[in-house]
Structures are given as C-alpha cells and as structure tokens.
Amino acid sequence: MEHFEKFESYIPFDLLQPMNFIIATVVLILIIIFRYFLLAGAFWLGFYKSKLQSIKKRQIYDFLPDSSQQLYEIKWSMYTSIVFGLSGVVMGLLWQNNLTQIYLKFDQFGYWYLPASFILTSLVHELYFYWTHRWLHQPRIFKLFHKVHHHSVTPSPWASFSFHPVEGVIQALALPLIVLVVPLHPLVVLIYLTAMTISAVSNHLGFEILPQNSEKFLAKWFVSGVHHTQHHRYYRYNFSLFYPFLDVLFKTEHPQFSRDFRTVFDKKAK
Questions:
Q1: CA–CA distance, 63 with 114 (Å, rounded to integer)
Q2: Which of 119, 151, 213, 270 is the most buried (most CB within 10 A)?
Q3: Contact between residue 109 and residue 183 where contact means Cβ atoms under 8 Å apart
Q4: Angle at 193 between CA 160 and CA 178, to 5 degrees
Q5: pTM score
Q6: C-alpha closest to that of 91 among 34, 159, 21
Q7: Residues 228, 114: Cα–Cα separation, whole Å
Q8: Which residue intervals of 59-155 are DSSP H helices?
C-alpha cells in the first residue's frame, strides 16, 4: 500500500524538463491507445462476433455499422488519444507544482472518502459534460466540431473516442479542472478514467447491457446503450454522460425512451 502513497510511483521524473515532458506524453498516449483497443476490442469481440442468441437479442440497431464506419471511428479516436495523453501529462504537471487537490495518503480524508470522491467526481463531471454537450449542439458549433462524432448515427464501440480534436480538448479538460477543486487520490483518478472508458464503450456499443425490464429502475438512474443511441438518432435528446437526471430535469430526455428500451428485447434476435 505504501507504494501507492508515493508521488514517485506515479510521476518518476521532473515534468518541467522538456524531454521528460515529451517522453511522458508519448508513453501516456500509447497507454491510452492500448486501453482503447483493449476495452473497445473486448466489447467488439464479445458482442459483434458472438453467435449467442442471448447476446443477439440485445442488439439495438437493425444493422450493425460496417467496417468503413468503424475505421472512421478508429481514425478520429487516435487523434483524441493524443489530446487525452497531452491533457494527462498537463494534469501531472499541475500536480507536481502543487496546483491540484490530489493527495497521497489513503486515509487523509478517511477511507470512506475514496468511493465518495469517485461518486462526487462523476456528478461534477456530469454537470460539465451535459452543458458542454448542449453547447456543442448549437448549429454552428455542431457543424464545426461535433458532427465528427455524430457521423456515427449507429455507433460502434470504436466511436467512444471518435471526436474532433477541439471536442477532444473539451472532453479532456474535465478531469484536470475537477482536480483543481476536488481532493482525489491518484488511484481514484486512474480507476475513474478506466470506468469512463468502459462507460463510453458500452454506451456506443449498439447492444443494451442493462438487464431486461430495467427501464423503470436501473435505466432511470444510469445512462444505457438505448439512451445514448437515441441521442445519436435524434440529436435533440439525451445529452447526459452517466446519469440521466439532468435530461429529466431540463426536459431533454427522449419521451419514448422506455418504449425503445422494451423494443430491444421484444423484437426477434437477428
């Protein structure tokens, strides 16, 4: 446990040195790309290549996206990975210079705070994402940047990072801004980043992973595949990231969400 309470375990050299900054950025970009292919690829293999009827019956789209669309999504995801890698090193630089609220002792705020800080971060991130997402849907801004992501009307798991670089910067700024004000342990940050990727992949998967008949409970509290698929189909609805409460509060949730959720399981498996 002591290993994870040392600054050197996360940042082993001075990021103010230009060569160290470059090396750290390249290494982090490669790690992000590896994680992207590992997680998106695992979901792709598990769902797109599965012959199980229990998987097939969860398919949301009538037809899964073709290889050209998936390659398009992977291409833009590589640009996003570069942006994410750079933002991660910038966050490390801020931490190195004592400009963040990142702390190292697990019990500094009590062990209970570790999971609580994860939840708090997700709620703050939800607010940030919802309103920046609404802004990205302003007609002029959409045409300039957000249309890259919406090129995928029926997205695949590879679309989870498929953003224009400007939108990638907006997405990447969330966590560095949060750690300026919210105390977080670096392990919580790492777990949160992985959870974000899993959530993004599953919501763009094209299959509903929540249990059948959960539209009145789990799907009311957590963004699901159907929920985000409706956003890609209808554009003006379902702007949330993890939790749909802001869509409900500001009346941007699609009125037929429950119906579409049930339809996935009612139709015959393809």
A1: 42
A2: 151
A3: yes
A4: 110
A5: 0.94
A6: 21
A7: 29
A8: 67-96, 113-136, 139-141, 147-150
Ranges of each domain in the chain: 2-213
Q: Is the pLDDT of residue 226 over 60?
A: yes
pLDDT digits (tens, 9 = 90+) for 11-48: 999 999 999 999 999 999 999 999 999 999 999 999 99
- C-alpha 261/C-alpha 188 separation (Å) is 32
Q: Is 204 helix (H, G, I), strand (E, B) or coil?
A: coil
Tell me how far apart the alpha carbons of residues 268 and 139 are, in angstroms, rounded to a whole number. Answer: 37
Instruction: Give burial (CB, 10 Å; 0-12/13-18/19+) of 102.
Output: buried
**Alpha-carbon distance 58 to 47, whole Å?**
9
Q: Which of 3-7, 24-28, 131-135, 183-187 has the lowest mean pLDDT?
A: 3-7
How many other C-beta atoms are found inside a 10 Å radius of the C-beta of residue 141?
14
Locate tokens 């189909």: which residue? 233
Side chain identity, residue 13: F
CA-based end-to-end distance of the chain: 49
Give the span between the Cα atoms of 236 and 252, in whole angstroms: 7
Question: Cα(264)–Cα(212) distance, rounded to whole angstroms?
Answer: 9
